Amino acid sequence: MKNIILLLKSHQNLWTAMMLLLLMGSMASCSDDEFDTSAPPVIERIRNTNPNTADSSFVSATLGSTIAILGNNLSTTLEVYLNDYPLGVNPAYVTNNTVVIQINDSVPTVATNPDVINKLRLVTRAGEATYDFQTLPPAPQVLQVKNQYVGPGDQLTLYGRYFYFVDTVYFPGDDVFVTTGIQTNAGGNTLTVTVPEGLDFSESSNVIVVSRSGASATNRNTQIYSGWGMVADFDTPGVLNWPWDWGWGISGDMIRNTQPGIAALDGNFAGMNQAFPANNDWNNDKVINLAAWSGEQMFPTTPSNLYNPAAPAGNFDIRFELAINSAMPIQDLSVQIWYPDRNENELSYTIPLSEFARTADGTWYTFSANMTQLTNGNNRLGTYADFLAGDHDGIRQLRLVIQNTNPTQNIRATIGIDNIRIVRAVRQQ
After folding, report:
1. What's the mean pLDDT in 332-355?
2. Rounded distance, CA 133 to CA 255, Å?
3. H or E, element range at 29
4. Which helix (H) or strand (E) holds 183?
5. Given this chain, do its domains 2-136 and 141-222 carry the same CATH topology?
6. Please, what is the angle between helix 2-10 and helix 14-24, to 10°?
């Protein structure tokens, strides 16, 4: 029992250690000599290590799970195999009636090999036992929404992991989901589905993917556009729609519904078609400088429950869609977000284009930056009120600049930018 208590104190996974104590406590003072080690092993059932599932019996588990094999004559267990892949056995996790193992990510699953045998095999000094058991991939993980600016009838593409056996994709709203027409690739890292009718963003803007292994988690990377927070869509009249050439912060002849190799998402967009100068050199046509020079509030303040001035700046993202069409490598191109605060700090954050844009063929991707990523030394925005305040003269500005960090090579490309907006990414205060 002393060794079990030491294990409980030192093991990083307290749930597993607690379970070991429960499963092994009555056997802790026994040695192999007290059991008939010549008897072949018997597997009665498999369960996980949560004490609340003591009476359960599993026939499948996901990669990464820790499971308890329950039975008899298990004290001399040498090895455990899942789909003929050896997992290894730690003697500290073995008693005559229990073997605790972890299913690591290298175990073959039906997702990657439909011919796996779906068997667990346990080997002891006296023989072996098998048990029908299916190993599944983990629950889906959504890492990126390719283009968040979608509505009913549009195709939504997700990038992530473990998109296997997906049966449902949930959208914002009460029971708004899709069960048919869900397309995934063989590697399980892309998913495409048609956006349904009935979206409701009053509670959430997240997309959730559900498979036989579970549901994907939600975070700021799993959201679609709610319709709130638009600053510049290059179509809608508003504070920035002045009747002069640079009212949208870019030359008027660059605002159109098409550019070479780029088709519009919805209406007009801001286009840049040039050889972007090397070494971060400047020209006006690589800049979108949104500015309310007369002091108007161009940033969103409604709905007030979302755009609460007291909310932490870290709850907000600056997002926009960007498309690039280029025959040249784009790894040296980036977009800088720039904002001057009321303390005369020029806050900025730079996003490499390759961080979000997976192709350079004119496809639209959503770019996103948390508002607190805009920094100048140790200076950053604290609350949304700091952002609403504008600069020291009360002028609200937000600038996007395409930068080419290559020291010598100009990069010829066409770039489109649309739907610059402020999104309440985290709704809790």
Report:
1. 98
2. 59
3. none
4. strand 183-184
5. yes
6. 170
Domain range 230-424, CATH class: mainly beta
Domain boundary assignment for the chain: 2-136, 141-222, 230-424
More confident residue, 263 or 36: 263
The helix (run of H) or strand (run of E) holding residue 56 is none
How much is the mean pLDDT over the chain? 90
| pLDDT for residue 48 | 86
**Residue 303, preceding peptide bond in cis (omega within 30° of 0):** yes
Closest CA to 361 of 329, 323, 330, 325: 325
**97-156 confidence digits (pLDDT tens):** 999 999 998 999 988 888 999 999 999 999 999 999 999 999 999 999 999 999 999 999
CA distance 71 to 98: 6
Percent of the chain with pLDDT over 70: 89
pTM: 0.84
Q: Do 182 and 191 touch, CB atoms closer than 8 A?
A: yes
- 3 CB-near residues (< 8 Å, 6+ apart): 28, 92
- Looking at residue 245, what is its pLDDT? 62
Assign 27 a pLDDT band (cuts: 50, 70, 90). very low
Percentage of the chain beyond pLDDT 90 is 80
Q: Which residues pair with 404 in a beta bridge?
A: 333
On whether the CB atoms of residues 80 and 121 are closer than 8 A, the answer is: yes
What dotted CATH number matches 141-222? 2.60.40.10
φ, ψ for residue 257 (rounded to 5)? -100, 10
For residue 401 the two structure tokens come to: 């600049």
Nearest 5°: the CA angle 358, 149, 316 is 90
Fold (topology level) of 2-136: Immunoglobulin-like (2.60.40)
Express each pLDDT in 359-380 by its tens digit.
999 999 999 999 999 999 999 9
Tell whether the model's pLDDT for residue 18 goes beyond 80: no
**349-358 own/partner pairs: CB under 8 Å, 24+ apart:** 349/373, 349/374, 349/375, 350/403, 353/322, 353/324, 354/330, 356/144, 356/322, 357/322, 357/323, 357/324, 357/330, 358/146, 358/159
Residue keyed to tokens 């996901």: 62
Q: Cα dist. 13→25, 88, 93 in Å?
A: 18, 18, 13
Main-chain dihedrals φ then ψ at residue 428, nearest 5 degrees: -70, 145
